[in-house]
Amino acid sequence: MIEELKIKLQEINNLNDLNQLKANYLGKKGLISAKMANMKNLTPEEKKNLGQEVNRLKQEAEALFNEKEKEIHQALVVEQLKKETIDVTMPGYKFNLGTIHPLNQTIIDLENLFVGLGYEIAEGPEIETDEYCFEKLNLPKGHPARDMQDTFYINPELLLRSQTSPVQVRTMLAKEGKPIQIICPGKTYRRDADDATHSHQFMQCEGLVLGKNITMADLKGALLDMAKKILGDDRKIRLRPSYFPFTEPSVEVDVSCVKCGGKGCSMCKNSGWIEILGAGMVNHHVLEMCGYDPNEIQGFAFGVGIERITMLKYGIEDIRNFYSNDLRFLKQFKEAK
Ligand code: PHE
Fold this sequence. Notes:
The structure is a single chain. The chain is an alpha+beta fold. The chain has two domains: 2-83; 102-333, Bira Bifunctional Protein, Domain 2 (BirA Bifunctional Protein, domain 2, 2-Layer Sandwich), CATH 3.30.930.10. Helices cover 38% and strands 20% of the residues. It is built from eleven helices and ten strands. The strands form two sheets. The protein has a seven-stranded mixed sheet. Strand 3 and strand 4 (158-160) form a beta hairpin. The longest helix is centred in the first third of the chain and has 40 residues, at 44-83. The N and C termini lie far apart (86 Å). The chain binds phenylalanine (PHE). Phenylalanine (PHE) binds at residues 163, 165, 206, 244, 247, 278-280, 301-303.
C-alpha cells in the first residue's frame, strides 16, 4: 500500500490533487480506515496486530503526505520568485529637475553677499499697519509723498505693504537702541496698472545699518559691492540727490549701463547710467520715533527692486515674464549663477 502511495505521489504537483489523495488514504472512509472494517470478526490477538499495522500505515502515509506538501509549497515559492524577478535593464522613471526662479536667484545672491558682510536677514509681514509702513517712516496721514506709494488697504489702519521699509521700523523697535545690520528681502504691493515695467505685486530688498560713526561712505561701499555682485565686477555707481521722507540726505543710485558699459546706448537712453535704487542716511526723526538717539547712533538705509535688477542682469524686457510661469522662459535660467 505504501509503495503504491509513493508512486501516486510522484505524479502529483499541486495542493488540490494532494488533498484529494490524502482524503482517499487517510479520510474517515479512506483506504486505511477501510482495513478496520472487519475488525469485529477477529480474535483479540489479530485485532491488536491489525491495530498496530493500521497505525503504522497511517504514520507512514502522513509523513509522506507532509513531505510532499512541503515540496509543493517550495515549488510555488520558486515559481513566485521567478515571476517577480526585477528586470534591472529596464529604463527607470525620469525625474525632471526644476530650476531656481531668477527672482529667487537674485535674492540668494544678495543674501550670500550681505551675510558675508556681517548682515542678518530680517522678515516682516506683508499685511502691515499704516503706522509701520508710513507713519513711523515720517509719512504721517495726508503726507503728499504717500501718493508715490498708493497701495491696497484692508481698512484705514491695515494695508498690503508698499515697501519693505516697515521691516526697518520693526527691527529698530525690537533692538531698542542697539546697532543693526540687516537686509530684508520680501514681497511688496502697489496700486499700479500692470505693464512691461510695473506690477501690482513685486519684490524689494531693504538694507539698514545703524551704529556709531556710520557714514555715507559706508553706504556707498555697500552699494558698490551689491552692484558688482549682481551686475558684474566692472560696474560703477553714482549717487544723485533725491528725496525720501525717511532718509536725509537721500540719494538715487545709478549703475553704469550693463549693456554699453557707460558709453551710451538705447538701453541707458545715451546717458551711460541706469537708475537702480533709492537710499540715504536714516532721518533723525525716524530714529527718534523708533527709540534711537540720533546723537549716539546713525546709519543708512537702501531699498532695491528685485525685479528691476534681475531684468537688468539678464536683459529681460517685460516684468510679467517673472509671474507667468512659462517653462520656456524659466528653463533659460538653468545655468544661471
Ligand atoms: N522704500 C523706498 C521705495 O520703495 C526705497 C528706499 C528704501 C529709499 C530705503 C531709501 C531708503 O521707494
